[in-house]
Specification:
Radius of gyration: 18 Å
Largest sheet: 2 strands, antiparallel
Number of domains: 1
Strand content: 5-15%
Helix content: 55-70%
Number of helices: 6
Strand order of the largest sheet: 1-2
Shape: globular
Protein name: MarR family transcriptional regulator
CATH topology: Arc Repressor Mutant, subunit A
CATH superfamily: Winged helix-like DNA-binding domain superfamily/Winged helix DNA-binding domain
Keywords: DNA-binding, Transcription, Transcription regulation
Order of helices and strands: HHHHEEHH
GO biological process, one term: response to stress
Structural class: mainly alpha
Number of strands: 2
Distance between the termini: 38 Å
InterPro entries: HTH_MarR-typ (IPR000835), MarR/SlyA-like (IPR039422), WH-like_DNA-bd_sf (IPR036388), WH_DNA-bd_sf (IPR036390)
Domain HTH marR-type: 1-145
CATH class: Mainly Alpha
């Protein structure tokens, strides 16, 4: 085991993120999704479920990903038959996004798999009633808020 006491918080988060993402990639590969595609599809699912049909720009803002990256991911998801797009009647330059029936089916399956993986990955923090997991959520939320404020 490596001496993690000398690692910065950023290094710990980065290494954990790499492992987490690789685990999700493995767990949902049979559905034809990568972790990045899952993240976009799950975000789109949430927006569509709330009655929205977002543009790529709105989806990028919602996910925090760059628009060029969203564009590439959406193209791949369209090619796989998970996402459909059409020109926005209010703005000819914009494209509205929606889930196809297959996209809805696949994201429901993927969300269940990712929830199970999340529970497995965090079970070490739930052995005492989940206090550690709740504290981790609070701490990570605080870090996200602090780094978001620094981006402005």
């Amino acid at each position: 085991m490596q001496d993690r006491e000398i690692w910065t918080t950023g290094s710990l988060v980065w290494h954990l993120g790499l492992r987490w993402r690789a685990g999700v990639d493995r767990a949902i590969a049979h559905l034809g999704l990568t972790h990045a595609q899952y993240s976009v599809l799950a975000s789109l699912h949430g927006l569509v479920s709330a009655g929205e049909r977002p543009s790529q720009r709105e989806l990028a803002a919602h996910t925090g990903l760059q628009r060029i990256y969203i564009s590439k991911l959406v193209r791949a998801l369209e090619k796989s038959g998970f996402v459909v797009s059409e020109r926005d009647s209010r703005d000819a330059r914009a494209v509205c996004l929606d889930l196809s029936d297959e996209g809805k089916r696949v994201i429901e399956l993927a969300k269940d798999i990712v929830r199970q993986l999340d529970a497995k990955n965090t079970e070490v923090l739930t052995k005492t009633g989940g206090r550690e997991l709740a504290e981790l959520h609070r701490a990570l939320g605080a870090l996200l808020d602090a780094t978001e404020a620094g981006d402005e």
